[in-house]
Prior knowledge:
Layout: H1 6-16, E1 20-24, H2 28-41, E2 45-49, H3 51-57, H4 59-73, E3 77-84, H5 87-96, E4 100-104, H6 110-126, E5 131-135, E6 141-147, H7 162-172, E7 176-179, E8 185-188, H8 196-205, E9 209-212, H9 220-229, E10 231-236, H10 238-254, H11 261-264, H12 266-283
Parallel strand pairs: 1-2, 1-10, 2-3, 3-4, 4-5, 5-7, 6-8, 7-9, 9-10
Bound molecules: 1,3-dihydroxyacetonephosphate.
1,3-dihydroxyacetonephosphate is lined by residues 24, 82-83, 143, 185-186, 213-216, 235-239.
Amino acid sequence: MNKKSLQYYYQKARKEGWALAQFNFSSAEQLKGIVEAAVALHSPLLLGTSEGDSGFVGMGQAVAMVQQYRRETKLPIFLNFDHGKSVESVRAAMEAGYDALHFDGSHLGFEENITVTKKIVRAARKKGITVIEGEFGEIPGKHSAYHRERTIEITPDQLTDPGQAKEFAKQTGVDSLAVVIGNVHGMYQENPRLDLARLQNIRKEVQCFLVLHGGSGTPERDLLSAIKIGIVKINISTELRGAFTQGLRSTLEKNPEEITPYKLFPEAVAATRKVAEQKISFFGSANRL
Ligand code: 13P
């Protein structure tokens, strides 16, 4: 069993200039494809479930499956609870045995968010959770579907303010901060460019790790630049969901009479694996065990 922590990999990533993907899943089939990719490329693996994802797959079930894959593959595999919006949901994830937590208090006022995040950090530390992610500016968009026909606009006032980021990180004691620098959840006609100058300024102000949500569809050259500036983790959900669904749809179109789950899902699993492999290679986490 690999004993290195997620902190260790964040540190290593920042020092060496690569990033971990956080792959979100809500079914055993998606998880299978993602793990296959990490095994093939000898990559440390960070998985995530949102409130919606874990509401379906089950928090205890997600933890148990991840533990089993850890035993089987001997890879460092970590499970993050993504966008926990309430103290209750974050506590449930803690109790279930998640390795890392993201409390998304962006719906709260800045001061209240700090107060609640601080409390969560304290409780999570007692449980031995080493990576707690905070967020104060809402990330625009939705990661539930492709919106290829839609456009999205970001205004400068939606972006993370470096001074506030410094204040938030210092007061809450979070290990990582989710920044808003033009990243959006989901895929659009054209996803916005990242504001890399803004990221540089945040990086100058903030000591904790910086992480990026909304990895699907973001211009690739911007992602590479963001990694060079210091982003250590990029969340991917929409692209995985899209690939999985296309794989399943293609199988059903070819075999409309098929009813056996283990014959229905292999194409969806393979399509998921392909996306995960692309991201692992592109973000540079292959062979970083
Ligand atoms: P995408 O759906 O754009 O990949 O974003 C995922 C995400 O940020 C989950 O927190």
